[in-house]
Amino acid sequence: MALPSAFSQESLEEESAVKEESQENDEVEEEPQNLYLSFVDSMKKIRFLETSDDCFSANELPQKGRSLVSSANGKFQRRFYGDDLRLQKIEYWKQGASSAQSLLERELFFNPPKKNGERDVLEKNYGEKSERRTFYLGDGKIKSQRVDWLDENGAVLSFDVFNCEYDKKGRTVLERLQKYSVDRKNVRLSSDERRVWVYNKSGLEEKSYYKNSVLRVRTVYQDEEKGDYVQTSYFDGGLIARDFYRNNEKVGSTIANGGGDGK
User: Fold this and answer.
1) How many Cα atoms sit within 13 Å of 216 on the Cβ side?
2) Which of these, 232, 190, 229, lies nearest to 211 by C-alpha position?
3) Which one of 39, 109, 182, 210 counts the least CB within 10 Å of its CB?
4) 207 and 216 in contact (C-beta within 8 Å)?
């Protein structure tokens, strides 16, 4: 599960356009490339830039900080930075015929990192009516995430909780996704999924998938790098299907009732 990464500090870069000239029959003819319209302030800093494809403007905020607005293909973004140039918020808009007709689709809020480098990001998606808060470790890996699904009035209808664990080498050892329903403040677990990774000295040894505490799929690796493994699927009623792979291509399969765990 992956989420978009937007944590590096971004700064405005001033770019100059180059006009190439060609001379033919003693006449100089300019051939403009990447035509743009730009405005600079008294400090020679670009405040507005427009090309045939997109445009952006840079502004100072009254409450300290800066904002950067960019537009392309009927969409535009507003990025807000603090005095330290740390990204604080991004707004995603669908552009209308006027500012009143423009639609705010979603927002991202970036909280300052803790001393250990961990941080969290809140996404408010107004189109799908959800709020997603993601917690990141200092190395950028996802630690946990919660998604609230809302009704028209902003009340929580259901929510998902995702947690991830890693070993000392930074390898994923556990992913867990739990889904809850909410009915008049009564919370009920509706689904619980776990993915577990086991490693040995050679690399990945085994990967398992559980649904509501029941083992559903187990993959045992003879050689992960070569793509040699056996994948066993467990179905209700005791049916077991095994698929055998060599070089990541299936070379055989078996189906049986009952039996071992695929090892």
Assistant:
1) 9
2) 190
3) 39
4) no
Tens of pLDDT, residues 39-69: 444 444 444 444 444 555 556 666 677 888 8
Residue 207 has pLDDT above 80, yes or no: yes
DSSP code per residue over the chain: -------S-----------EEEEETTEEEEE--S-EEEEE-TTS-EEEEEESSEEEEEEE-TTSSEEEEEEETTEEEEEEE-TT--EEEEEEEE--SSGGG-EEEEEEEEPPP-TTS-EEEEEEETTTTEEEEEEE-TTS-EEEEEEEEE-TTS-EEEEEEEEEEE-TTS-EEEEEEEEEEEETTEEEEEEEEEEEEEEETTEEEEEEEEETTEEEEEEEEEETTTTEEEEEEE-TTSEEEEEEEETTEEEEEEEEES-----
| pLDDT tens figures, 69-101 | 887 778 888 889 888 888 899 999 998 877 778
Tell me the C-alpha to C-alpha distance, in Å, between residue 82 and each of 119, 204, 258: 16, 43, 62
Task: Give, rounded to a whole angstrom, the gap between the first and last alpha carbons of the chain.
Answer: 27
- Report residue 1 as tokens: 């599960």
Judge whether 197 and 204 are in contact, CB under 8 Å: yes
Q: What residue type is 213 in one-letter code?
A: S
Entry pTM: 0.72
Q: Are 66 and 86 in contact (CB under 8 A)?
A: no
Q: What is the pLDDT of residue 40?
A: 42
CA angle in degrees (0–180, nearest 5) for 250-251-256: 90
